[in-house]
Design goal:
alpha+beta; 7 strands
Length: 174
Amino acid sequence: MAPRSNAQHPMQPRSAPFDWGLAMGLGVPDFSACRFSANSASLGRIRRFTDRTLTRWGRRACAEDVTIVVGELVANAVRHALAAHPDRHGWLGLMNTASTVICAVQDPSPDKPLPRTATAQDTRGRGLHIIGELTHDWGYSLHGNAGKTVWAVVPTTLTPITARRGTSCGATNP
């Protein structure tokens, strides 16, 4: 199944390094960022960071969806951008809006994220499809030779796909 959007984000690459944190609202109460690397402890640390951030924002009901999306985005950055460059790092940014949580992962690779067609035997290749199912939209911005940011918009006003009970992100359904 194809993602809902794989269009390039309208932000144009700049000659100076792109400050995606500033563009997303770095410094506002509803923005948090965390640096990660390709080491084995990074994904666990990113999941804990995501959980704490969503708890602080009162978004526990959508934590599973957001954590899955963040995990897939970070795993892709580690596998495809950071594994070959252990001295480099990536950034996760989370932004809380009235009806969404925006997840953005910046990495040093200029390679575009491309969904694969996985067979039943494949152990990889489903991440972008999972992201497409759990989000309103996803896409990427290229930053010239400085890498890219892959972003996903997780709805918080609908019942999460992974929900086991009748709650939505931040509100209880009647």
